[in-house]
Write a structure and sequence with these properties.
The protein has 89 residues and is mainly alpha-helical. The protein has a single domain, classed as Orthogonal Bundle (Arc Repressor Mutant, subunit A), CATH 1.10.10. The longest helix is centred in the middle third of the chain and has 13 residues. It is globular.
Length: 89
Amino acid sequence: MYMQTQTLIHYPRLDTVLMVEDAIKNAGEYPSKRRLWLSLKKKIMYQTLNVILDYLVDSGKIVIKDREIIWIWNPKAVERYKKAGLVVK
């Protein structure tokens, strides 16, 4: 996936990105975009949420499948694979 070219009012701050990451990681079930957006501790613009989700997809931390947001990043597993000699991109 790639970041779509669009006019942004502002880019998200790091604390906002981390808040969204935590909300996805700690969700009891796989949320939709709307459910995730409504569950956030502080309110953000929907456009900002989409920018953050695009970033998380591009960085390999989440996948969005059948409208569900799934956290897939596991740094412990990545470290284990690196020690085993596998190339991780």
